[in-house]
Every structure is written in C-alpha cells, then in structure tokens.
Design brief:
The complex is a heterodimer.
Chain A lengths: L21 H39 L2 E2 L8 E2 L3 H7 L2 H32 L6 H9 L6 H11 L6 H8 L11 H29 L3 H9 L4 H12 L1 H15 L4 H6 L17 H10 L4 H36 L1
Antiparallel strand pairs in A: 1-2
Helix pairs in contact in A: 1-13, 3-7, 3-10, 7-10, 9-13, 10-13, 12-13
Chain B lengths: L1 H38 L19 H11 L2 H32 L5 H11 L8 H11 L6 H4 L6 H14 L2 H9 L4 H12 L1 H17 L2 H6 L7 H9 L6 H36 L1
The chains are: A mainly alpha, B mainly alpha.
Chain lengths: ~325, ~280
C-alpha cells in the first residue's frame, strides 16, 4: 500500500491540516491505485486472449464441435480416445520430434561455436554480429517459399548442385527423412545466429579471472572452452534449449509452405512432414472439427511441458558432468 | 608472458576465423539473393541446368504482376496498420507496467510479476481455436482488430521494460517530481519516459518485426480479401501451378523493406538482444 513515490503532501496541505482536502485525497488514491491501472492492460489482454483460450481449449476438446455449430455435443474424452488410435496423429508426433531434434541439436552446437568465434578480438565486431543476425529479419513465409524453391524436386538449386558434383538428386519433398532435413535447415538458417548472440552475451559476462587462472594452470584454448566456458554457460544454454524446444515443437509455417501441393495442409502426399501444429490446423480449419483439434492442442501443450522439463534436467546434468572434469 | 602466448595463438588462427564468419554470412544472405535472382528473371531460368548468377531485368514486371494477383497494396497497408498499432500499444503499456513494477510498491506486486514471467513460457498459439470461436462470436473474424487486440501488450515487453527501468530511473528524480506536485502519471511522462528511450526503441523494433512477420493467427482469422502481407504471400503461392518468378517477386517485395530497416538499425537490434540476454 505504501508507495515509494508517496512523499509529503503538497505545499497547500498545511492550510487545512484538520481534514484532508479533496486534492490531497485524490493524490493518495492516485498513488494507491495507479500501479494497478498501469499493469491492468497486460492482465486483461493476457487473461482474455491467452489464459482463457488455453483453458477453454480443454473444454472444447470434450465436445464434437464443428465450426459454426450452435449446439455442440458433449462427448467426454472420446476425442482423446480417437486421437490415441489415430495413425496420422502418431505420425505427426514422430515428425515433430524428428524435425525438432534435427533443428535444435545442430543449432545449439553451431551457435555455441559461432559465439566462441565472435568472442575473439575481431575487427568491426558490430558488423559481424549484424551479419550473423540477418536471417532473423526474414519472414517465415518468405523463407518457406524460398526454401521450397531451393529444395524443389525438378529445378531446385540444391539438386542441381548435387548433380554437378556427380551425386544423385534427392526427393526432398517425397522422402520422409530428407523432408525433415530440409525443414530443419530452414529453422536452423533463421535461428542459429540469434542463439549465437544470446550465448555470446553470456560469454562476455563470464568473469575474467577464472580464465586467467586456467591460463596459469596451462590450459590451452580448447581445454579452456570445454572446462571453463561451457560449464559456466549452463544457465544460458538451458534458456536457449528451452526456448528452442517451445518454438521447435510448434513448427507450422515451414512444413505448410514446403508442400509440393501449394496451400495443402497435408504435410506431403503421405503426411511425411506433417507436424502436430499443422495437423491441428488441418483438423480445425480444413476438417472443421474444433473439438478434435483442441484435443491435439492440449496434448501438444503437455508434450511441450514434458520435453522442456526433460531438456532442463538433461542440460543441467550434462553441464554438471563437464564441470566435474575440471 | 601468458598474454603474449594468447596473442600469438589468435594471430595464427585469425584467417580461419574470418573465413568461417564470411562463409556463414554468405550462407545467410544467399536465400535473399536467390529470391531476388529468380524474381528478376522469368521462371524459365529455373529449368536451366546451372542457373545464372546475376539478376536479370524483369523484376518490375514480375512485381507488378504480384499486385495484379493478390491485393498486395491492401496487404501492405494492413500490415502497417497492424504492426504499427501493436508496436505503439505494446511499448506504451509495457512501459507503464514496467514503471509500476520497477518503481512502485503495491500489494501483490511480486506475485503478479512472477506470474508475468511464467506466462513467457506459455505458447499462446495453442489457444487459437477458442480464440477463433471468440472472434467469430464477436463478429471480428476477417477484421484487423482480431489480429491487433490479442497482441496489444506482451509479457516480454513488460519484463523487458521493468528490467530497464529498475536501473535507468533514479528514485530521487521521482520523489523530486512528486514534491513538485506531479501526479503519478506526470512522473511517468516527465521522469520515466525520457530515461527509457533506448529500451523503448529496441522493444519497438522487435515488436514491429515480430508483428510484421506473424503468420499463423492472421492466416486463421483474416480472409483472402483482407490479408496481411504474410497471408497474401501464402495465397500467392497456393495456386495449381506455381510461377516462381511471381511468387519470389512477392517475397522480395515483402522482405526488402524489413531488410533495409534491419541493416540501418542492426547495431541497436544486436545490442538489444545481447542486453536482454545478459539480464534475462
């Protein structure tokens, strides 16, 4: 209730010391209630468009709810039962995890190595950082279209290059693993530089004396990197891994635009690269089954929490063991 | 002595370091360049075994076909309205909330702030179905306010502003303003706002880029007649036959403005990311 900015009343207060003037009271109310007014926009917007929909998703998932349906039918957990027997759901789950692993693992490793390079004393340090971050400015849609063209089956530049080097062309859209690889490339292309900068920021905040001690102990650059830098980066690495998990498990734009049949939500002719979010979108806005799509949304949410938690534990473990070698 | 040894090591590997960075940045630029290359020629070039390396002269004719195929001017206008409004409100509301959390004591402030930080991890995209139902019931589906309202203020913005204001605005100044008879809002305007300009600028750039590039929600809630740029691009691509010169002219048109802004403000954006990362 007491506020830091609440200071002695205004100069005109002494005139009517006996009872507070209207102006005085207004000033007290101002101090007391202003903070709530200032934080209100966030809570109103988040409550109505973030939290409520998330909870309401669970409610909708219990109904047979078509778009435009005025009287949806309550069916309990039937959507979830159907979902567990739905081969397309399991397929999308495997695709999502596969694309997620192919994107986030190399991404984090390359980001750390890039950050190590950028942390050296370079000429024009700011320009290198801007250059590394360039892909971050591209829109996912533009990116999806450009990469779909580059990885095109017939006239794609990637296949042309492969043939120039005497290799076989790859059916980037048709082959399941190849399509995952291509989509992961898009994700990595956009996010690696961004993550490198976050890791770099953390690297620059590390205390210097530890390095000096390591140098005195005769540790070489590589040894210093693995035994000093990496363990101390642990909190940042956990942060990077968790944010890339949350993003990686929701991949939607890339697989949607990668389809050889433009506009399709199938994720390839055999759903070979349909992700969970794409399946969710297809169920809701192509199949008009909002209840079923909500069930997918809810399971996806649980999956994100689970994997984020697992990541947190694994990263902590890994960083701890590298720390012990020191 | 040890310092000397470090220096020599750096000198020896410098060539390798620069070469790696240049290769990485060239790879970063290539898709942009490729998009412009195809957009400035005709689709026939894609069937050449080895494509030409220099742009042709057809960019403007391809670009004008983009405007014929989809309501691209309207899309550009819509994106400016959406991203502009969202940026303004996000910066203003985040600064107000950040000011309250950083400089005022009120019941529940710690708990409420922790709550905001936790919501950073909640993927709001998972609520799109009820959100769509809500927007349809309100009669907002197809209208820009359906895209604007859910993005009026973000948890990240509030968090970012609070972290900055804690250090940037001294209590003494606030108290002085109060003694001089300023209302709380007056102190916000006269003391806080001038001090947070750098942080507000970074937040504005991020918010604008994020909002400009947003796709899933506008795709769901807007229709082909009233799209944002990203939705228009997707519509451009989803025909029976893909004319890549046309489609990539569209992506170039949509990307070049952002790319220019990015190159002009790149230093601040980088500084913002690095600063946010250290504090986060």
């Amino acid at each position: 209730m007491t506020t830091v900015v609440e200071k002695p009343p205004r100069q005109d207060a002494p005139r009517e010391r006996a009872k507070p003037t209207l102006r005085h009271r207004l000033s007290r109310w101002d101090v007391k209630f202003s903070p709530y007014v200032y934080i209100a926009p966030f809570f109103v917007v988040f409550g109505l468009t973030g939290l409520f929909p998330l909870l309401y998703t669970a409610y909708v998932s219990l109904f047979d709810w078509e778009i435009g349906d005025d009287d949806p039918k309550f069916i309990g957990l039937e959507n979830f039962v159907t979902l567990f027997g739905d081969a397309q759901f399991w397929n999308a789950l495997v695709n999502t995890i596969s694309i997620f692993l192919l994107s986030s693992v190399p991404q984090v490793i390359i980001a750390v190595l890039l950050a190590a390079l950028l942390s050296l004393r370079l000429r024009f340090p700011a320009s290198w950082r801007v250059g590394i971050l360039l892909p971050y400015s591209a829109s996912l849609v533009a990116l999806g279209i450009i990469f779909a063209n580059l990885f095109g089956p017939r006239y794609g530049l990637v296949n042309a290059m492969l043939e120039t080097f005497g290799l076989d062309r790859v059916e980037w859209q048709a082959n399941r693993f190849a399509s995952h690889l291509a989509i992961a490339t898009m994700v990595n292309w956009r996010w690696t530089g961004y993550n490198a900068l976050i890791v770099l920021a953390a690297m620059q905040a590390l205390p210097r004396d530890v390095y000096e001690a390591a140098v005195v102990d005769g540790a070489g650059a590589v040894r210093r990197f693995f035994s000093v830098t990496l363990p101390m980066l642990r909190p940042t690495l956990i942060f990077v891994v968790i944010t890339s998990t949350i993003g990686g498990l929701q991949i939607f734009t890339e697989p949607k635009l990668f389809d050889a049949m433009p506009g399709s939500n199938n994720g390839g002719s055999q759903h070979q690269f349909q992700t969970l979010t794409l399946y969710l979108y297809q169920s809701a806005f192509e199949g008009f089954d909002l209840g079923y799509a909500s069930a997918i949304a809810w399971l996806l949410f649980l999956l994100i929490i689970l994997i984020a938690l697992a990541n947190f534990l694994i990263t902590r473990r890994l960083a701890a063991t590298t720390g012990l070698k020191r | 002595m040890t310092v000397l040894r470090l220096h020599r090591r750096r000198g020896g590997s410098r060539f390798f370091v620069y070469a790696t960075l240049i290769a990485f940045i060239a790879g970063s630029l290539f898709p942009f360049y490729w998009s412009f290359l195809v957009a400035s020629r005709d689709t026939g070039m894609l069937s050449d075994h080895l494509p030409p390396l220099l742009p042709g002269g057809n960019f403007w004719s391809n670009a004008s076909r983009v405007f014929d195929s989809v309501p691209f001017w309207k899309a550009l206008g819509n994106s400016v309205i959406v991203a502009g409004t969202v940026t303004l409100t996000t910066v203003l509301f985040s600064a107000l909330a950040g000011f309250a959390f950083a400089k005022m004591r009120f019941r529940g402030s710690n708990g409420l702030f922790v709550f905001i930080v936790v919501t950073l991890a909640v993927p709001t995209q998972l609520g799109v179905i009820p959100l769509f139902i809500m927007m349809s019931d309100l009669g907002w589906a197809g209208h820009l306010q359906a895209v604007i309202v859910p993005n009026l203020v973000t948890a990240f913005g509030v968090f970012w502003m609070r972290q900055y204001i804690v250090d940037a605005v001294p209590y003494e100044l606030i108290e002085a303003a109060r003694v001089d008879g300023c209302s709380v809002f007056g102190t916000f305007v006269h003391v806080c706002l001038p001090a947070i300009r750098p942080a507000a600028a970074v937040l504005a750039m991020f918010t604008f880029m994020m909002s400009w590039n947003d796709f899933l929600w506008p795709l769901i809630v807007l229709d082909a007649g009233n799209p944002t740029v990203q939705v228009a691009l997707e519509k451009l691509q989803s025909g029976h036959y893909v004319d890549y010169s046309l489609v990539l002219a569209g992506t170039t048109l949509a990307t070049i403005p952002v790319l220019i802004v990015f190159l002009l403000l790149g230093r601040q954006i980088v500084a913002g990311i690095m600063q946010g990362a250290v504090k986060g």
